[in-house]
């Protein structure tokens, strides 16, 4: 059995094991290690396992070491810590609080405020799951209390939570940048306009929904205290400042993405202690949560690096790329096929699993056709974002179901999410057909 065949069989085996819910880190490292062993054992034509032990162990250890000691990887624990510390200081929810005060007297206003709160949370945390979990606990009960349709209340937060994948900082952009060796700073900047476009699309869905069915979003008749709007707007200053520091600093060339993360963490801690909203106990809790989350991401990323090295050894990615070249597919047709593949995988696998599994095969095809890898990164993350609310395994939907009223069934949330999914497809088509939306800001550097 030649190396390319072993690579394709291994890829199929990975899909099967992931479908059986085997942890992705163990799947990637295990299949890659066994596959590498077989390639070296059969290299001479006959099975000689003694010749495979040293090169296999060397490949595994070197790949793991190379990934863990990557400088770019250091920004993941920093941004994860930023999100957790900001949450414990209350910074991540202040944009929602401000938007809620300003919009609660407008039809569907609390739902729109929830979407804006999710966007604000995403601009600090970089995690879709954390965004959906946190905002789901805050926004959904408020909307249900006001008499909102449960489908609108839950679906708007489930969809809004996906903004954490696209609006910088984003863990998925970091992983994409590491595995494709593209600029993470430019990826962050490229995600700004697509993220805002997605947010605008979601707001349009809420407006359309409530205009067709006003009973889905009753207006809160409670009058606001004098000066409440101004006070709420002023209270959101820490979140806005952090976003400006991260994006403004990177765009202005003042510091790198990693430096922006470190500076933002320090600023968040100082703000928390200054406002007395952060204690040593809550800070330790945030650090402990960050350690757990970072360890999980690092383990998956390191095992993925082993799998990438295995794929390179097999030559399977080059073979697939050659098949595509021989087929003479146009860039648009290839993009359509890639979108269908990611949308299908998004129905069953988690975003990190999809990105580390597919990039070794997809990137050579895209690169051979001369497509911009920054733009393609935005498309990939957008597709992963859609997968978070796609049935039957939309992670954000199940997160919302777990943190809100258990009487609301998952089927109800999925029924509401379909409207936002339709808008996602429209936004995806716009981003594919108009690459300038993603590239205008990073190319301005």
Automatic annotation (TrEMBL):
Protein name (record): TRAP transporter large permease protein
Keyword Ribonucleoprotein: no
GO cellular component: plasma membrane
Function: Part of the tripartite ATP-independent periplasmic (TRAP) transport system.
Pfam families, per database record: DctM (PF06808)
UniProt subcellular location: Cell inner membrane
Chain ranges passing through the membrane: 6-39, 152-176, 188-209, 230-251, 296-320, 332-361, 373-400, 420-441
Subunit and interaction comment: The complex comprises the extracytoplasmic solute receptor protein and the two transmembrane proteins.
Taxonomic classification: Bacteria, Pseudomonadati, Pseudomonadota, Alphaproteobacteria, Rhodobacterales
Organism the protein comes from: Paracoccus haematequi
Predominant place of localization: membrane
Membrane-protein topology: Multi-pass membrane protein
A molecular-function term among this protein's GO annotations: transmembrane transporter activity
Sorted UniProt keywords: Cell inner membrane, Cell membrane, Membrane, Transmembrane, Transmembrane helix, Transport
InterPro entries: DctM, TRAP_DctM
Protein family (similarity comment): Belongs to the TRAP transporter large permease family.
Residue ranges constituting the TRAP C4-dicarboxylate transport system permease DctM subunit domain according to the UniProt record: 11-437
The UniProt record lists the keyword Transmembrane helix: yes
Coiled coil: none
């Amino acid at each position: 059995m030649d190396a390319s065949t072993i690579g394709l069989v291994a890829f199929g085996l990975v899909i099967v094991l992931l479908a059986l819910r085997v942890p992705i880190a163990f799947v990637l490292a295990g299949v890659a290690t066994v596959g590498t062993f077989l390639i070296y054992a059969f290299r001479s034509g006959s099975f000689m396992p003694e010749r495979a032990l040293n090169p296999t162990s060397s490949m595994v250890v070197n790949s793991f070491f190379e990934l863990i000691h990557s400088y770019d990887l250091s920004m993941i624990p920093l941004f994860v810590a930023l999100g957790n510390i900001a949450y414990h200081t209350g910074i991540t929810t202040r944009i929602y609080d401000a938007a809620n005060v300003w919009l609660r007297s407008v039809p569907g206003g609390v739902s729109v405020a929830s979407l804006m709160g999710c966007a604000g949370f995403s601009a600090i945390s970089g995690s879709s799951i954390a965004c959906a979990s946190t905002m789901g606990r805050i926004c959904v009960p408020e909307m249900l209390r006001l008499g909102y349709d449960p489908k609108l209340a839950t679906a708007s937060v489930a969809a809004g939570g996906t903004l954490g994948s696209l609006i910088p900082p984003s863990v998925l952009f970091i992983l994409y940048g590491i595995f494709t060796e593209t600029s993470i700073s430019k990826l962050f900047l490229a995600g700004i306009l697509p993220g805002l476009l997605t947010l605008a699309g979601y707001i349009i869905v809420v407006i359309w929904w409530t205009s067709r069915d006003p009973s889905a979003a009753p207006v809160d008749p409670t009058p606001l205290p004098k000066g409440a709007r101004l006070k709420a707007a002023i209270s959101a200053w820490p979140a806005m400042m952090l976003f400006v520091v991260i994006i403004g600093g990177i765009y202005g060339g003042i510091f790198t993405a990693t430096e922006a993360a470190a500076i933002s963490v320090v600023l968040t801690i100082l703000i928390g202690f200054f406002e007395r909203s952060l204690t040593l106990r809550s800070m330790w809790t945030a650090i402990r949560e960050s350690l757990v989350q970072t360890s999980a991401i690092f383990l998956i990323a390191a095992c993925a690096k082993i799998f990438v090295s295995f794929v390179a050894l097999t030559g399977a990615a080059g073979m697939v790329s050659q098949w595509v070249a021989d087929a003479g597919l146009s860039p648009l047709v290839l993009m359509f096929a890639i979108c269908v593949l990611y949308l299908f995988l998004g129905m069953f696998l988690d975003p990190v699993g999809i990105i580390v599994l597919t990039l070794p095969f997809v990137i050579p095809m895209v690169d051979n056709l001369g497509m911009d890898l920054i733009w393609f990164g935005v498309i990939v993350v957008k597709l992963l974002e859609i997968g978070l609310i796609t049935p039957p395994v939309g992670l954000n939907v199940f997160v919302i179901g777990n943190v809100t009223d258990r009487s609301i069934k998952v089927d109800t949330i999925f029924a509401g999410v379909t409207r936002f999914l339709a808008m996602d497809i429209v936004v995806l088509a716009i981003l594919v057909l108009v690459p300038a939306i993603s590239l205008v800001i990073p190319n301005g550097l």
